[in-house]
């Protein structure tokens, strides 16, 4: 197992390198770079795309000597290019970025005057909170429901619950989030939950119990909106895993010995059936953490990593874009290794060394 883990860890390096190369190359062709953003703000356009007539990161000069494409002095534009590092060739900029990342130096945001790592640490608790609660609730609901559906396979209960969760899975996350806001956050119906944010403005003045209640009050709708799609996958996965195990010979042998149905189900079937479900826990969390956080955080005005990445992409804040991409990719790859370790923890009979051989 140790040799397998070592290979997986070493594989992280070329994987991260490939991810960064592809995304860095793509960014070079995206119009509206940070210099264009600044020039657009200077001219009061508010949109860098309005004056783009070619490349994204390069600012071309006009035919007038000493005057830039937007009528600004060419010296000023060159100063901006030097300030953002665009006076260097793309390959040199990429190699400098990799060298800095090796030293855990992710640079400073172009427009926020704060280091990228501080930004990530500031926003991460919101995304982790959303991901943990969503994953926990999904497992608490889906596992018992999946077991119940397996035991009552083919009954009306199985049919209508399957229809319900499939319909819920088919609803886009952003549409369901908006529906929750309209119904329960002061839209056209009830004002039960807050419209935005993770805490109230007077959060620091509340008692301990008041802080817990205020936090849960704010997180309820975002968590529900990000969890609804996970119910279908986990429930059906649990059901199918239990059905596969129930049909095996050892289950019939246990029943023939006179064991109760509960003893057979939870004493013998549960461990084997839950292998794939429990081992997939890290993957489910990372899926909620990165997959749905952008939409949910934006709709509910939660200041997390998803919203940070979205705003950085809009502003062309390259240090934040590449820093969050590097960190999120690294976390995703480490979670993949953790998922494999979970398989071994749940069932020690699994040996990845023999499987590779």
Automatic annotation (TrEMBL):
It comes from the Bacteria. Keywords: Cell inner membrane, Cell membrane, Membrane, Transmembrane, Transmembrane helix, Transport. The keyword Chaperone does not apply. It is a multi-pass membrane protein. Residues 124-343 form the ABC transmembrane type-1 domain. It is found in: Cell inner membrane; Cell membrane. GO terms for cellular component: plasma membrane. PROSITE patterns: ABC_TM1. Pfam families: BPD_transp_1 (PF00528). GO terms for biological process: microcin transport; transmembrane transport. The chain crosses the membrane at residues 9-30, 128-147, 159-185, 215-238, 273-300, 320-346. NCBIfam families: PRK15133.1. Belongs to the binding-protein-dependent transport system permease family. This is Inner membrane ABC transporter permease protein YejB. It comes from Pelagimonas phthalicica. The gene is yejB.
């Amino acid at each position: 197992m140790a040799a397998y883990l070592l290979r997986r860890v070493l594989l992280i390096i070329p994987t991260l390198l490939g991810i960064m190369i592809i995304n860095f190359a793509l960014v070079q062709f995206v119009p509206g770079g940070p210099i264009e953003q600044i020039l657009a703000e200077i001219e009061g356009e508010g949109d860098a795309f309005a004056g783009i007539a070619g490349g994204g990161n390069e600012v071309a000069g006009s035919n007038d000597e000493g005057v830039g494409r937007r009528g600004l002095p060419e010296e000023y534009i060159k100063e901006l290019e030097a300030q953002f590092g665009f006076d260097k060739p793309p390959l040199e900029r990429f190699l400098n970025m990799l060298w800095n990342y090796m030293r855990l130096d992710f640079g400073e945001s172009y427009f926020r005057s704060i280091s990228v790592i501080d930004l990530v640490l500031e926003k991460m608790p919101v995304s982790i909170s959303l991901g943990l609660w969503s994953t926990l609730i999904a497992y608490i609901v889906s596992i018992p429901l999946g077991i119940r559906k397996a035991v009552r396979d083919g009954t009306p209960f199985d049919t209508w619950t399957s229809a319900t969760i499939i319909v819920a899975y088919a609803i886009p996350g952003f549409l369901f989030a908006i529906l929750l806001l309209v119904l329960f956050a002061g839209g056209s119906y009830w004002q039960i939950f807050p419209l935005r944010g993770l805490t109230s403005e007077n959060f620091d003045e509340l008692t301990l119990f008041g802080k817990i209640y205020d936090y849960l009050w704010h997180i309820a709708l975002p968590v529900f909106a990000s969890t609804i799609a996970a119910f279908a996958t986990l429930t059906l996965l649990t059901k199918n895993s239990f059905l596969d195990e129930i049909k095996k010979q050892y289950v019939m042998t246990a029943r023939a010995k006179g064991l109760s149905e509960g003893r057979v189900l939870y004493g013998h079937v549960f461990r084997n059936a839950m292998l794939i479900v429990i081992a997939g826990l890290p993957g489910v969390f990372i899926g909620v953490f990165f997959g749905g956080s952008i939409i949910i955080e934006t709709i509910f005005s939660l200041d997390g990593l998803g919203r940070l990445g979205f705003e950085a992409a809009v502003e062309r804040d390259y240090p934040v874009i590449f820093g969050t991409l590097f960190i999120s990719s690294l976390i995703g790859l480490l979670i993949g290794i953790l998922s494999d370790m979970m398989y071994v923890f749940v069932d020690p009979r699994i040996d990845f060394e023999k499987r590779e051989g």
